[in-house]
Amino acid sequence: MHRRDCVKVAVRVRPFNKRERDAGSRCIVSLAASAITIQDPRDSQCRRSFCFDYAYWSHSGYVIQDRTGLYLPEEVGGRYADQECVFQDLGQGILENALQGYNATLLAYGQTGSGKSYSMVGYKHNKGLVPKLCERLFKAIKEIKEARQCQVFFSMLEIYNEQVVDLLSRGSRPPGGLRVREEQHRGFYVEGLRTVPCDSAAQVEQLMEQGTRTRTTAATHMNANSSRSHMLLVLQLKQIFSKESVTKQSNINLVDLAGSERQRSASSEADRLKEGTAINLSLTTLGNVISTLADMAVGRKTVHVPYRDSVLTKLLQSALGGNSRTVMIATVSPADICYEESLSTLRYSERAKHIQNRPVVNESPTERLVKELKAENARLMQRLSRLGQDGRSANDETKEIRQLLTHNELQIRTINTLWEKHLQEALRDWEQQYANITQERRLMQMHPYILNINEDAQLSGVVKLFIPAGEWDIGLSEGTPRSISIKGLGIQQRHAVLKNEQRRVTLTPLKGSKVTVNGRAVSQTSELQHLDRLILGSNCTYLYIGFPSERGANDWSRYDYDYFLSELAAAEGIHLGESSTESCQTDPSLLAVFYDYVKLMPLVAEANQMSQELKKGVEFKLEIKNLVLSDSKGNDLEKEIICKVTSKHSKQVWMWSKAKFVNRKFLMEEIYLRHLDEMNGEHTGEGLSSSALPRDKDPFWDPVEPLLLGTAHLWLQSLAFRIPVDEQLEVLGSEGSEEAILQAKLIPCTSDGLPLGEDDILIDPSELLGRRLDIQLVVEQCFGLRWIREARNRGIQIGFSLLDSGGRVYTPAVWHHVNPALRHKVHFASLHVSQHLLDYLQSSAVLLELWGLQDGCTSLVSPLEGARVSTEGIFIIDESGMTNTIESCDLLGLRLYVDEHSGLLKDFSEQLEQSVSALKHDVATIVRRKRERSGT
Ligand code: ADP
Ligand code: MG
């Protein structure tokens, strides 16, 4: 009866999104039957194939129905897998299982934006697995002929940062979230979670809408990112077969997991300590549980499955390696730029398919209780009748037993009528909600309003704030009759005034508040037009919907979150989107960087806001690393987004990678929330614990390090002619700013370091081939150092290497000077100029790097290992990598040897010369003597 049952895994490939289309992405996945193949975009030979239970192609071959927006296959039997097709394979099975009394679990796993919510919940008419499952479930219940009573309960919760939030709760949110408890026969459960009895799919859908609304407002209030949270929908189906007196209960867990993308941080030891697994403990633990179970399935011995390590895995214990039938849908983007993430999703899913469960039909605990009560009553009745037979007068005991009997019967009756009672209650609730929805629809037809737009498309358009005639304060304050209450980072008590007068709506920002309309910051009253984009505070994004008469047939869906961001970016001079796609088409990697920039902008705004409110005194700013910089050949360097962090007080500066910033931002949120709790809670006043964090735990702080401020190119070409160079070079920062002027010289010289004269100038560089070439590089002086001008407590060093010879050189540190004299001289030599070196001289530059030193950091030292330095301190730049044959390597070795022993050789040649002259002398004497003897 304990059948083993493997976790079923499906994979689904979604269409390109606008971003990917704009970037000219290539599709790197292909499907054949249930196998999926993914190709490394940088290496077409590198392919990996995975086999799953199901594979869905939802990438191409579809048409969008005009009226409904429904995605359908182009032709009947086409390869496009629509929502119905996915339901038939995955949902139908779960439904049948549930009706048989098995627990079932459906997990959606994948990178943010890969289509998890689309598959689970769906968008508008493209209903996903959950609404379809509900429809079919209630339909099945109605059609069931046998006598059984079916009860369905629905609950909806979210796990964010290990806290459980009840999305259907009517009360206020308990701080710290709901508790997860464990009971022997029940396993782990969420204490106090609201479960709502339902008797129609419409009711469930309405509850989901309500839950989504709670999620949306919670997300903006708490400044939380929905992609980091897990959403759990639980359907409990209870079937009471009165004739057979059997009750079957099955729990259906529907889980829309947090985005699987991993932020690979710079991960120094300190970072790892700070970021740890806190970023998403539940998702990490889920991975560990899956790995352990997969190991067990292939017979590897494991001692311990770490279910208890996170909230999510506690709640999913029965779904993974337990008594549940489990299906996982892995969603992937088909685009080349998502290769790494898609591959990691496929690998993860590959492991999951090995997990084995042992599904069993469940008996409900409630039913067991009724049984137990009935049994106890039977026992009591027996005792009662025995008491009667004994004929003894045992009045007290009889009375007591009768009391117990009535109590038990009452309890049985309550249990049985509970469902009815609850259902009635839920229906009343539903009617109320329904009335609210109708009311909202009516208001939409009467007044202009603003509509929330969220980064997560699933949460967009959920909140509508109406602007009836008159003047309204919009801001944090609530409860006053003429206020529209919103919450979010950087929103003031009274943030702005919305005025609806004579069929015009105007917006007036109040003092000190941030308001952006269509990407531009506004400080004056401005009239709003239908479909204007508003950003209030750091990141509360709304779309303005004008008066009904102003609204056309056009749908607002094109004004998604990306649209807001591109508009903001455009205001900063970065152009994306339709008009500029042509120019960007040439460089998709640049476009990808810009998109990154744009996506991070609101996060940076939030980080700044949090820093301000927490009085951290640091400022965040995005920069594009290498935007204008090039390598020693003048080729563009790979660009990436970095975040510059500046301490306003000490002027210390840190450069964070994108991943590091994203991880840190999450930790900042955590501290920020704690701070808010402290503020709202005990009002402890001064000494906020969040500001007293030890530095190794403080996400706003890092040890200081030298920073690369910019580079200058010193071109080598004239060295090929042995012509000296003396130049004033512009040191350019990452984004093109002038960081300093650097005076540097290249002087062709003798092996003793004496400058060559004009006579040594070559007409034909090839004359250098095979000969020795000595060069001195002199870093003379820096002028106008911006880094020092900004803060005098800083220093600089210049770093460079010639010919990538392995010898990196840093000039000694100089502090506090805006125009420091450096006068640092380095002697380089090639003992035997090769063609390669000659080409190099003619086409390359020395990259002179300007390094910024700051208070508390140690200066850079020239790492001499790996460099070839002669006894005279000359850097030898002939490199084995340049002359590839083993022979020439040996020659080079020999030459080095010869060079180092040149002193000895010199002595030897002197001796030789002496001997030769002595010999000459001797020969001459002999010749003379001979002549004398012969008498001539
Ligand atoms: P996730 O929940 O994984 O972050 P979503 O499900 O919200 O991602 O999908 C992101 C976007 O991609 C949405 O706008 C959604 O409409 C679209 N999308 C996802 N999957 C599909 C699909 N199979 N067909 C059409 N559009 C899809
Ligand atoms: Mg989602």
Structure description:
- This protein is α+β, with helices and mostly antiparallel strands and 936 residues long.
- β7 and β8 (71-73) form a beta hairpin.
- α10 (365-390) packs antiparallel against α11 (395-444) and α12 packs across α14 (588-613).
- It is elongated and about 170 Å long.
- Residues 577-586, 682-688 and 881-895 have low confidence and may be disordered.
- The site of adenosine-5'-diphosphate (ADP) has 17 residues, from α3.
Observed structural traits:
936 residues, alpha+beta, nine-stranded mixed sheet, 19 helices, 26% strand, binds adenosine-5'-diphosphate, binds magnesium ion
Structural class: alpha+beta
Content of β-strand: 25-35%
Bound molecules: adenosine-5'-diphosphate, magnesium ion
Helical proportion? 25-40%
Radius of gyration: 38 Å
Mean pLDDT level: 84
